[in-house]
Write a structure and sequence with these properties.
This protein is about 40% helix and about 15% strand. With about 325 residues, it is of the alpha/beta class. Strand 10 and strand 11 form a beta hairpin. The structure holds adenosine-5'-diphosphate and 6-O-phosphono-beta-D-fructofuranose (F6P).
């Protein structure tokens, strides 16, 4: 393979720029040419495709967002959109594509591979909700941003003796809530993967203020459960009388300079994606499992609850659907006593 392209798609995540940089520099070091595609699949279809050199990715490793821009482009789920994109890839002499994004973006990569254009996925999303990898690029930064914000909310919560419901992103996954909750010493963590009893949540607030002498109460709520406002409403209906405030951290978690961990993971994965394409392999997604690089079939990776089988090289992981660490929920219960 002589010429490959790279794009970012779906929700942006801190560390995507570090991954693009790694793809470009690794490909160049392997004697390949690299093209950038702006705005994900939308830019592919529009032919917004241009050569990327080593210099163009200089000064990017520390920047949040994605300098290739990202887009949601549902038209790419249709055959017509895919064929229009492929037409552009052919026009630019591109033979393989690295797709940095979430599971929606992986479906697009799968379609390209099926049409004869090997595509490799790199998990770029703050949600950490992709099968086949223990970590996604952007998750660590999002957790750190959430912790910084929750620390601040705790100050004002303590000054006023208030309860705070802090809503964090994560789509249907509770990973951000669990990690940020533990790291910020949250009093309660509510995630979609675990049922909650609203009466119990209310009695815990009351008990903590009245019997444990706590002067703050922080509840970290994953957006996949319900909105912070809806949760606050439920608390009131269930008899909560504490002075309650709701903060939605929202898109703040998507921005900012990536942490060292996200930069390292992005560099590692970006480089491996190029190795796979160089070997003519498509239809795979790069991941990290037990601190080692792995690759998995992108089809399985994009499907919920996917299971994988081992290859002869022993590199494709077995049975690694995404699972939030529910042991962290019970860990937090014992630590917030
Ligand atoms: P993420 O990649 O973060 O999960 P989306 O689900 O929005 O984000 O998907 C990103 C983009 O991937 C979509 O806007 C679309 O261009 C492409 N895509 C999503 N689903 C499919 C599909 N079934 N087939 C082809 N392309 C898809
Ligand atoms: O997938 C990343 C994410 O930020 C989710 O956590 C959130 O549910 C969603 O994207 C928000 O999407 P949008 O940026 O389109 O509002």
């Amino acid at each position: 393979m002589k010429r490959i392209a790279v794009l970012t798609s779906g929700g942006d995540a801190p560390g995507m720029n570090a991954a693009i940089r790694a793809v470009v520099r690794k490909a160049i070091s392997e004697g390949m040419e690299v093209y950038g595609i702006n705005r994900g699949y939308a830019g592919m279809v529009d032919g917004d495709i241009f050569p990327l050199g080593s210099k163009e990715v200089g000064d990017k490793i520390s920047r949040g967002g994605t300098f290739l821009y990202s887009a949601r482009y549902p038209e790419f789920a249709q055959l017509e959109g895919q064929l229009a994109g492929i037409e552009q890839l052919k026009k630019h002499g591109i033979e393989g594509v690295v797709v940095i994004g979430g599971d929606g973006s992986y479906h697009g990569a799968m379609r390209l591979t099926e049409h004869g254009f090997p595509a490799v996925g790199i998990p770029g999303t703050i949600d950490n909700d992709i099968a086949g990898t223990d970590y996604t690029i952007g998750f660590d930064t999002a957790v750190n941003t959430a912790v910084e914000a929750i620390d601040k909310l705790r100050d004002t919560s303590s000054s006023h003796g208030r309860t705070f419901v802090v809503e964090v992103m994560g789509r249907n996954a509770g990973d951000i809530a669990l990690w940020a909750g533990i790291a910020s010493g949250a009093d309660q963590i509510i995630v979609p993967e675990e049922e909650f009893d609203i009466e119990k949540v209310v009695s815990t607030i009351k008990y903590d203020f009245e019997h444990k002498g706590k002067n703050h109460h922080i509840i970290v709520l994953a957006e996949g459960v319900m909105s912070g406002d809806a949760f606050a409403q439920k608390l009131k209906e269930a008899g909560d009388t504490s002075d309650l405030r709701v903060t939605n951290l929202g898109h703040i978690l998507r921005g900012g300079s990536p942490t060292a961990r996200d930069r390292v993971i992005a560099s590692w994965m970006g480089s491996h994606a190029v190795e796979l394409l160089k070997a003519g392999k498509g239809g795979l997604a790069v991941g990290i499992h037990h601190e080692e690089l792995v690759e998995s079939p992108i089809l399985g990776t994009a499907e919920e609850g996917a299971l994988f089988s081992l290859t002869e090289e022993g590199k494709i992981i077995v049975n690694n659907p995404h699972k939030a660490r529910l042991d962290f929920a019970s860990l937090n219960r014992s630590l917030s006593q």
